[in-house]
Design brief:
about 220 residues; SAM-dependent_MTases_sf; seven-stranded mixed sheet; methyltransferase activity; transferase; disordered C terminus; disordered N terminus; 11 strands
């Protein structure tokens, strides 16, 4: 998960949670709903669900919204070239300090290797980045190679929601608001064809849901 850090780290619950490796902190929506953010899991060794993502990765890999970098670091340990990007400076600093490679960059900004990444990861709800899954997926298809794949974690329910959110701690301290989105597997399957993407795999592990998407190809083998 990734958020903008527009406040000093000592005041931003998300930045503070990243610095301490703990929490608890929550993703709060404007209507009052909230979701617990498992920051401690982002610092731990990859779970079995994470492993199902990692075993589907071919390098080079771009981990979008990498947080403290557990996935890209695990790939590097497997000798698979992987780079994380995150707009949160604290997340990027943590990734690098723990032995990963990361850039403090938005996915919508110019990035190295555009059109050449074989795998792009959108884990931990990061399909919500920017608040517009269609725009995010269009951008991701520009980043991957014609033979590449997007590995996307989705909600377990059929939801397609654009909203505003912020990170909040148990004392009510809030980070800055940002556009966010929630998308379930059925909704992603519905919008994929209009974006020139085909679903090539779908699976669940440890109460988490994932889809693999690849550019749809014509008879000539080029993306349609």
């Amino acid at each position: 998960m990734t958020t903008e850090e527009n406040r000093p780290a000592r005041r931003d619950p998300y930045a503070l949670a990243l610095r301490t490796g703990g929490g608890p902190v929550y993703l709060r929506l404007t209507d009052g709903r909230w979701t617990w953010l498992p920051v401690h899991r982002w610092y731990a060794q990859p779970t079995r669900a994470d492993e199902t993502l990692l075993e589907r990765c071919a390098g080079p890999v771009l981990d979008v919204g990498c947080g403290p970098g557990r996935l890209c670091r695990a790939l590097l340990h497997q000798s698979i070239f992987a780079v994380g990007i995150d707009v949160a400076p604290r997340a990027v600093a943590c990734t690098i300090a723990l032995g990963g490679t990361a850039l403090c960059r938005s996915v919508f900004a110019p990035l190295p290797g555009e059109g050449a990444w074989q795998t792009l990861l959108l884990a931990d709800g990061n399909i919500g980045i920017g608040g517009d899954p269609r725009a995010l997926l269009r951008r991701c298809t520009q980043l991957i190679a014609p033979t590449g794949v997007l590995l996307v974690e989705v909600e377990q329910i059929d939801v397609a929601e654009r909203c505003t959110a912020w990170v909040e701690d148990t004392h009510g301290h809030r980070g800055p608001p940002f556009p966010w989105a929630r998308l379930g597997a059925p909704a992603l399957r519905r919008i994929a064809p209009e974006l020139g993407l085909g679903v090539t795999d779908e699976w669940r592990s440890d109460h988490r849901s994932f889809l693999a998407l690849s550019p749809q190809c014509t008879a000539r083998g080029r993306p349609s």
